[in-house]
Structure prediction request, 178 residues.
Amino acid sequence: MTAGRLAVQAHGYNALSFRELAKDVGVKSASVHYHFPTKGDLGAALARRYTEEGSAALNELLATMSNPAQIMDRYVAIFRAALANDNRMCLCGIMSAELDDLPEEVRVEVDKFAAVNLAWLERVLVIAQPKAPKPALTDQATAIFAAIEGAQLVARGCQDIGIYDRSIRAYRGTGLIP
Prediction:
């Protein structure tokens, strides 16, 4: 699963290959097929695990921290870490870029990742802006998620993590990110 995640983060879902994955982990391709009969099954499992692990990490942030700015510092650092790891992308972000080519079971899991992040961001925004109306918080959460994923994509494309850092500073400066 780790090798599959890293492969997709580096090259996208379309480049995911049972043969290459098996070679990377030192097993036969048939062994991978045994656990994941189709590429869609493997892609869905990768996205599901990524979402579950991400959700647990985000919930841990909320359970252990109370300052919204510090919580958001940790959140943006998660996305930055993928770039710092050989210029990789968020797994579900890169899969979203290939949405038209994804099997339905993978799309469902990618959508769950977005939903988890949006709901979590709204929870953080409620802490930061307790009197703000819910529709405004929903819109801001959507804008934050899109902005962070977009900054990651542009930084990756330019092979310049500094673009991500400057974008995050700009988002903070405009008040988009608490």
